[in-house]
Amino acid sequence: MYGRDYANLRFSPLEQINRENIKNVVPIWSFQTGVPDGLQATPLFVDGVIYLSTSWNHAFAIDARTGAELWHYKRRLPEKLVFCCGPVNRGLAILNGTLFMATLDAHLVALDAQTGRARWDVSLGRIEDNLSATAPPIVVGDRVLVGIAGGDYASRGFIDAYDAQNGRRLWRFDTIPKENEKNVETWSGDSYKGGGGGTWMNGSYDPELNLIYWGVGNPYPDHDGDAREGDNLYTDCVVALEADTGRLRWHYQFTPHDVWDYDGVNEMVLVDLDLQGQKTKALLHADRNGHFYAIDRGNGKLIYAKPFVRVTWTRGFDSSGRPLVNPEAIPTVEGVTVCPGAAGGKEWNAMAYSPGTQMVYLPVIENCAVFLNNGVKARQLNLPEGESGFRYLPNQAYGKVMAIHAATGELAWEVKTRTPMAGGMLATAGGLVFAGDPEGNFSAYDAKDGRILWSYQTGSGIRAAPISYRLDGRQYIAILSGMGGAVGGFTGAGAPWMKNYRSGDTLYVFALFEPGASKRYHAGAH
Amino acid sequence: MLHGRRRLATPICYTLSEGVFAELPCQALPTGWILKACVRLFGIFVGLRLKRCNLSHKAKLRNPKSLLRGYWQPIVTSTTG
Q1: Does A389 contact B75 at a Cβ distance shorter than 8 Å?
Q2: Which of A171, A308, A419, A421 has the highest CB neighbour count under 10 A?
Q3: Do the strands B13-17 and B20-24 form a parallel or antiparallel pair, or are they unpaired?
């Protein structure tokens, strides 16, 4: 399962590879997909087979013992596509021998896991409506749930549920209310008609509450807030939906009236916290807006919100949990410097939670940016309209691998990295945390104190998250290495030494060194 | 017709007329339009640079900090999706 479980913990209970022997871990085999433009997926491991997706909607099945290709699916995409940030795909879902992939032309495709042949193919929406799909679907019961991308254009976001057997749509939750619906008044004029609100990452699921938790992206236009006055619900929210119907139970808005493109799509990690001796079903979330949140996942009430990077857009929170926006951080025609920049404090790349340490491990981006509004504001000043957006401040971005105590939101430890962290995390019962960086270093950290215990240079930047699996009694670690997609935010201007990064296309698999074992990995051996 | 100026302590200008160089007092040279053209060309160059960087607003020109801050960085309109 994507994220390993419904709670999205990204915690592996495997402990064969641990603090003591990590130094003996070596690459076992690698698999080159031959597909450029970025690898962002978390692979799936099922019954001795690794499944992964790449940019341009390729999918591969690979023998996890040898690295041999079992099949290769390539989506035939139309020439005209609308996607903002690279032709990427962030992963697959699987149920009973069927894989599910969302595609750049806004379809959901079911593939036979044995052969890679399409079983069914349904349209999520029209390319003409500025829609595309890059998110990993999730499976809940016999339903496939999937989000949509396109929120950086005039579009309308949604979360869909489909019958895994035949692709019939079961329900849809519109992330922006329609005319006369509740909360449509949080949009001025008819701005709700194309207000964005993409859902371009995966959700989480609590089987006890039967609720799905899904993050919603930014409103459109991204930085011209005057064109869409109001809170702009349900953009930049986590929405809790009834799994059977898609009905909204509650929502919490991380960034009301977002004018910095902070989105709200980052993963929701479901953890039961011990708060003053009382067990609380919580949802943990590290937002692009720079705050780390704990929310009661039963009712949506804020437990705490604490900045984990430099934050200037807000001056704290009121008693209801609503952020108090700093008026000096609202984009202007002159430009205002705001922290975090649009890429940070943490991108969509998943954090991990270890029940052992009760810490959350985050890939962090420290940066600020100059935000400009050359839309309505320029018109009001009788100035010519121009492009609204942001500029990165050169040479000021850097990264961190950070550990936060889940119960309190307090920092446990952090390790600075030269380049902003833009890959996902994995925690293991072996007391380790694995993460890759955009310079290609794939590293293992001591989960307790952040000491770097092991590192391997993969040759290209890492944007994906690692997995661990056991096969024939041996523990493996796997990671996709391949820089691409939207990387300017992390590298181009903020960290210019990464401007001329090398693309890559490789799956690496690691295990403990075992003398004489290499011949077992020869795919052609008999 | 070509015009030029020697690099001398006492400026003496010359002109090429009908294939013959002739020295004549500088103030007699029609240098005004050359200067104007240069200024205009420079203005067009700067204007194009500003337009490229979307910094042509008067408000921005009133605020030189904004020029310095983002002059060489392109405007980015979105990050990921």
Answers
A1: yes
A2: A421
A3: antiparallel
Query: Using the beta-carbon criterion (under 8 Å), do A334 and B59 form an inter-chain contact?
Result: yes
CB contact under 8 A, B77 and A134: no
Cα-only R_g, chain B: 22
* pTM summary value: 0.88
Helices and strands per DSSP (H, E), number in chain A: 1, 38
How much helix, strand and coil, in percent to the nearest 5, is found in chain B? 45, 20, 35
Of B63, B74, B80, the CB nearest to A347: B80
Q: What is the DSSP letter of A362?
A: E
**Which residue of chain A has the CA closest to B65?**
A334
**Dist. CA A511–CA A376, nearest whole Å:** 56
What is the C-alpha to C-alpha distance for residues A313 and A398, in angstroms, rounded to an integer?
19
**Sign of the CA dihedral running A10, A171, A215, A156:** positive
Q: Tens-of-pLDDT digits for all 526 residues of chain A?
A: 888 999 999 999 999 999 999 999 999 999 999 998 999 999 999 999 999 999 999 999 999 999 999 999 999 999 999 998 899 999 999 999 999 999 999 999 999 999 999 999 999 999 999 999 999 999 999 999 999 999 999 999 999 999 999 999 999 999 999 999 999 999 999 999 999 999 999 999 999 999 999 999 999 999 999 999 999 999 999 999 999 999 999 999 999 999 999 999 999 999 999 998 999 999 999 999 999 999 999 999 999 999 999 999 999 999 999 999 999 999 999 999 999 998 889 999 999 999 999 999 999 999 999 999 999 888 888 888 888 998 888 788 899 999 999 999 999 999 999 999 999 999 999 999 999 999 999 999 999 999 999 999 999 999 999 999 999 999 999 999 999 877 655 655 577 788 788 889 999 999 999 988 877 777 665 5
Please answer yes or no on whether B70 and A335 come within 8 Å at the CB atom.
yes
For residue A215, which phi and psi values (nearest 5 degrees)?
Answer: -90, 140
Distances from the Cα of B10 to the Cα of A381, A459, B7, B14, B26, angstroms: 52, 65, 8, 13, 10
Closest partner residue to A486 among B58, B60, B80, by Cβ?
B80
- ipTM entry: 0.74
For chain A, say whether B75 makes contact (Cβ under 8 Å).
Answer: yes
> Is B64's Cβ below 8 Å from some Cβ in A?
no
CB A249 within 8 A of CB A242: yes
For residue A408, what are the contacts with CB-CB under 8 A and spacing of at least 6?
A: A304
Alpha-carbon gap, residue B76 to B67, rounded angstroms: 16
Q: Are A8 and A58 in contact (CB under 8 A)?
A: no
Interface test with B, best of A83, A374, A379, A487 (most B CBs within 10 A): A374
The single residue listed with the structure tokens 């690295």 is A67
By annotation, the residues of A acting in catalysis are: 261
Two structure tokens written together for B24: 């004549």
